[in-house]
Amino acid sequence: MPRKPDERKPEKRKPDERLPDERQPGERQNERQNERQPDKSQPHKSQPDKSLWIGLTGGIASGKSTVARLLFSHGLAVIDADEIAREVVAPGTEGLAAVAQAFGKTILKENGELDRTSLGREVFADEKKREVLENLLHPRIQRRVAELRAKFGAIAPVIIYDVPLLFEKNLASQFDGIVVVICRPEQQVQRLMARTGLSRGEADQRIRSQGPLGDKVKKANWVVDNSGTVEDLERQVEALAKELKTKIPADPKSTPKPKKR
User: Fold this and answer.
1) Spatial distance between the Cα atoms of 236 and 224, rounded to a whole number of angstroms
2) At what angle do helices 200-208 and 116-124 cross, to 10 degrees?
3) What is the tens place of the pLDDT at every residue in 52-85?
4) Cβ contacts of residue 102 below 8 Å, gap of 6+?
5) What is the CA radius of gyration of the chain?
6) Of 136, 151, 24, 129, which Cα lies nearest the Cα of 89?
7) Is the whole model's pTM more than 0.85, yes or no?
8) Do residues 152 and 54 make contact, with C-beta atoms less than 8 angstroms apart?
9) Residue 121: which residues within 8 A CB-CB, separation 6 or more?
């Protein structure tokens, strides 16, 4: 079962499973990640607000996206905030035009796409610029999330919203439960450096830009520890998926609140 970090049993870790966002652009999954639809083999007749709305978060490079993919493999609907963030700044969108106006055309590639590496280095070095970017993207992301939630609500008893800044953006109160993914601090740094090519200092800076992971754990209903083997992670997520499926509310006014572990 998902557990708190102090309950972890030491074990030798197998080679890390690559996170989805570590893939090169040409390796991305064919399906649109921000619209991962649930298993329709068991029809669900609920309205959108009757589905269990679960927030999934964790520190950068903690393995949150891997957990989301595993939950999806167990038949749960997943909405991916990171992929929606890419969608709202795709070439030709109002979102990209707004970002280019705020930060200048130097953050665009020659083909007109957003240069995420260039923009990332700029905003993570300046908190005010990061706030400007978040204020530009957040409303657009939330509108798209609302659309997808309404779409999935008619067929999905449980919807997972995979969102990095859940607590930082004060979104916690909207969820029926929150899952936090953790790993050891050094693992987090090394994974981030390997995934992005950042220096140690840059990786530390990005991790510090998010809220402390310990604070998130205190507010979680479930904690998934991604410090061990891939098999251990899979066992935890399987148990979590089964538990979530037992908490499907019959009436949105009586949505059960999962107990903290």
Assistant:
1) 7
2) 70
3) 999 999 999 999 999 999 999 999 999 999 999 9
4) 132, 133, 136
5) 18
6) 136
7) no
8) no
9) 202
Q: Enumerate the domain spans of the chain.
A: 33-254
Tell me the two tokens of residue 162.
């995979």
Bridging pattern class, strands 158-162 and 52-58: parallel
Q: Are 163 and 181 in contact (CB under 8 A)?
A: no
Written as six digits, the tokens of 88 are: 């709202």
Q: Scan for tokens 């601090």, then name that residue.
A: 185
Q: CB-based contacts of 200: which residues, under 8 Å, 6+ apart? A: 189, 193
Q: φ and ψ at 162, to 5 degrees?
A: -85, 105
Residue 37 token pair? 């639809």
Burial 185-210 (b: 16+ CB within 10 A, else e): eebbbbbbbebbebeeebbbebbeeb
Residue type, 236: Q
CA nearest neighbour of 160 among 180, 140, 141, 143: 180
Cα–Cα dist 257/52, whole Å:
10
Going from the C-alpha of 246 to that of each of 126, 158, 239, the distances in angstroms are 44, 10, 11
- Residue 237's contacts (CB-CB under 8 Å, 6 or more residues apart) are 2, 67, 70, 71, 74, 224
The number of helices, as runs of H, and strands, as runs of E, in the chain is: 9, 5
What share of the chain has pLDDT > 70, as a percent?
Answer: 76
3.40.50.300, 3.30.1240.10, 3.40.50.20, 3.40.50.1820: which CATH number matches 33-254? 3.40.50.300
